[in-house]
Amino acid sequence: MRALVVYESSFGNTAEIARAVWEGMFSRMPDVALLDVAGAPHRVPPELDLLVVGGPTQAFGMSRPATRADAQAQSGVTPAESTTGVREWVASLERPERAVYAATFDTRIHSPHVPGSAAIGAMRALRRAGFQLTAEAECFWVMGTKGPLREGETERAHAWGVELTGLLSALHPTDPRAQADRQVHAPPTR
Questions:
Q1: Domains of the chain: total
Q2: Is 54 exposed, middle or buried (0-12, 13-18, 19+ CB in 10 A)?
Q3: Which residue stretches of the chain are H helix?
Q4: Residues 21-51, buried b or exposed e (16+ Cβ, 10 A)?
Q5: Dist CA 133 CA 138 (whole Å)
Q6: Of 6, 70, 92, 112, which sits most exposed with the smallest number of CB within 10 A?
Q7: What is the CB neighbour count within 10 angstroms for residue 180?
Q8: Are residues 19 and 48 in contact, defined by beta-carbon separation less than 8 angstroms?
């Protein structure tokens, strides 16, 4: 696979955004996978070019076991004894053996007074883990703790996924796969 989207979701909002990002990427580059963080590998595949990581902003940053347990309780789910979130998963990732680009996103309550961002925390952690950041951290808005997503956010996430494939093609201009992507998706000529 050339790209992998890994996400963590508490109320389903981040999962919905992750799927929209994946769909946007898949529309331009069919060699992309979508995985919940619980099933994500701890070593990136050797052919991976782009890793996209997303999670909910909880307590001003990436989730922790306590914030995940609180979210599970709010959802009416019995909190699991141990959970893995983006924070723990990124910390457990093996350093890539070659340049692998990364991008991050989060979901946050739509309020200008709530600080913090899981995407920025994940971006810093990925940089420390040896990944090269290719895009600014992206934020998608929810209307309350449990959601729903603000109107238009899934469409914006889809567009961002398409944009990420364009960035990847620009980063690898001599890669035959990138050239094939541009040829397949080039506008018709007159």
A1: 1
A2: buried
A3: 13-26, 65-74, 86-92, 118-128, 153-171, 176-184
A4: bbbbbbebbeebbbeebeebeeebeeebbbb
A5: 12
A6: 112
A7: 12
A8: no
Q: DSSP secondary-structure letter at 77?
A: P
Supply 89's token pair.
């998963």
CA-to-CA distance for 166 and 180, rounded, in angstroms? Answer: 12
Q: What is the pLDDT of residues 56-90, one digit of tens each?
A: 999 999 999 999 999 988 988 777 766 899 999 99
Structural domain that includes position 17: 3-184
- Phi, psi angle pair for 103, to nearest 5°: -145, 150
Each residue's pLDDT tens digit, 20-52? 999 999 999 999 999 999 999 999 999 999 999
Tell me if 177 is assigned to some domain.
yes
Is 189 inside any structural domain? no
The strand pairing partners of 56, in sequence order, are 107
Domain membership of residue 190 (yes or no) is: no
Look at residue 70 and give its three-state secondary structure.
helix
Look up the CATH number of the domain holding residue 144.
3.40.50.360
Q: What share of the chain is helix, strand, coil (3-state, %, to 5)?
A: 40, 20, 45
In a domain, 140, yes or no: yes
